[in-house]
Amino acid sequence: MRLSSIFEGAPNIEIKGLYTDSxxxxxxxxxxxxxxIITNGHKYINQAIENGATCxxxxxxxxxxxxxxxxxxxxxxxxxxxxxxAKFYNYPSENMLVFGVTGTNGKSTVTxxxxxxxxxxxxxxxxxxxxIEYKDxxxxxxxxxxxxxxxxxxxxxMVKDDVKAVALEVSSHxxxxxxxxxxxxxxxxxxxxxxxxxxxxxTIENYFNAKKKLFQNxxxxxxxxxxxxxxxxxxxxxxxxxxxxxxxxxxECDYQxxxxxxxxxxxxxxxxxxxxxxxxxxxxxxxxxxxxxxxAIASIVESGIPMxxxxxxxxxxxxxEGRLEIIDEGQPFNVIxxxxxxxxxxxxxxxxAQSITPEDSSVISVFGSxxxxxxxxxxxxxxxxxxxxxxxxxxxxxxxxxSAKEIADxxxxxxxxxxxxxxxEDRYAAIRQAVEQANADDTVLILGKGDEPFMYREGGRAxxxxxxxxAADTIRKYYLGIGIxx
Length: 486
Ligand SMILES: CC(=O)N[C@H]1[C@@H](OP(=O)(O)OP(=O)(O)OC[C@H]2O[C@@H](n3ccc(=O)[nH]c3=O)[C@H](O)[C@@H]2O)O[C@H](CO)[C@@H](O)[C@@H]1O[C@H](C)C(=O)N[C@@H](C)C(=O)N[C@H](CCC(=O)O)C(=O)O
Ligand SMILES: Nc1ncnc2c1ncn2[C@@H]1O[C@H](COP(=O)(O)OP(=O)(O)OP(=O)(O)O)[C@@H](O)[C@H]1O
Known about the structure:
With about 475 residues, the chain is of the alpha/beta class. About 30% of the residues lie in helices and about 20% in strands. The chain has 16 helices and 23 strands. The protein has helices at about 5, 45-50, 75-90, 105-120, 150-160, 170-175, 200, 205-215, 230-240, 285-300, 305-310, 345-355, 375-390, 405-410, 425-435, 465-480, and strands at about 15-20, 30, 55-60, 70-75, 95-100, 125, 130-135, 135-140, 165-170, 185-190, 225, 245-250, 255-260, 265-275, 275-280, 325, 335-340, 365, 390-395, 420-425, 445, 455, 460-465. Strand 2 (about 30), helix 2 (about 45-50) and strand 3 form a beta-alpha-beta unit. The chain starts with a helix and ends in a 7-residue tail after the last helix. The relative contact order is 0.08. Bound molecules: ligand UAG and adenosine-5'-triphosphate (ATP). Ligand UAG binds next to helix 6.
């Protein structure tokens, strides 16, 4: 694309790529200097030019100018960058149906359910914590909500491949940093709001205000889908200029689930919608997943697909990787791998574990808490876990450069009852211990990492087999004795 077609009066040079990281710049690139949390992109202009940048977009006054390089000074970097990105990639989000999902918990689950069901009607992509995928393409993500350049590049690729819709997880970090400012959302979904990410946002108000941006920025033809049972929906309602649609269980709303019958194998409920009652059977388990399912059903129906058609596909929704994943190797006790990593997520999964565990049986927990992330929640994790567990095995969970033992000690400060608690640093050994301790009808909960195939250690991402694989492997080897010689 010609620079002159992006910025009025700019030289007529070719721009072949957009970059915010000087280390990644290629020939004929445009480099945006972002002032970040750790450093400032203005410091890396030389490197960007050495790597081939021919245009530098900056906000600060520069002292040095290199010949034949176009310098564009702007007032608002986020706004300018997003306008340029959208234009460069030919406004991909305007050429597809975009579902954006935000909230403290449930983003990955709701977006995956939307993709799973919508794919029956037209090709749908998914972008979020678990992966970036559409049709046969599957890529590993770096972030939940990618940076705006990569995000628009993926959407451009999806449009080229005739993908008609995308379900996008919208994190509070992404909203705060303007990563989705160039995205034309058609449907914005709110799951719930509880404590998280205060290390980044500072206060709970800032955290909520970040989430709110998705609704404030929604176009007037857009539709907001809100969880009526979460009190924060009232505040979001006032931020929306378009139509508001509600879903929930406890209060009357547009999509209400009533008479829930929960079991380990699935859930039955009556869905009240538009003065009709639809009997629903789904393989999804636990009440919070019915909220997630309602959010997905409402999104798809509001996008124009009739309810009767949508309901054909809810009885067998694909397992969302690492989210309430039941590991069944034929052992006589329950083993659940779950990505719960917020106090509310933990509380919800423990409530479910308690509901499926007979009173005289035990709940055995394996978890830790991430290093360099929100240390305030560690003690709360201890409090919640000790309320529901009969045994707690604390272990590593993305320790980064912190000591897993010290993180475990902080979790222990929340454990004030007599529940048995041990620390086993190696996550595989901790999972093995839980499996070996379990008796028939017990429930082993392995929390925090889901299916993630990596562990953040001091040197960055290291491989990890994933909690689901570790659980299946330890059950087979050390409980059932399969594949062990002696
Ligand atoms: C806290 C946070 O979100 N940080 C993001 C932010 O980094 P930053 O502001 O610290 O950037 P910085 O390191 O100060 O650098 C400033 C600028 O200089 C540039 N630079 C830097 C060094 C260099 O040699 N050359 C160069 O050009 C950088 O590319 C950047 O443009 O901007 C970077 C560029 O877009 C992101 O990669 C980075 O995400 C980091 C890696 C991250 O881990 N973010 C997580 C916390 C995050 O966003 N998570 C949410 C999900 C949370 C959840 O729900 O669990 C997500 O959406 O993934
Ligand atoms: N609607 C919900 N309400 C409360 N807890 C939930 C809900 N949905 C999922 N959870 C819990 O949160 C965990 C994470 O779910 P999910 O990955 O869908 O959330 P998320 O918002 O995408 O989180 P992240 O962005 O960190 O991936 C689940 O494993 C479960 O324990």
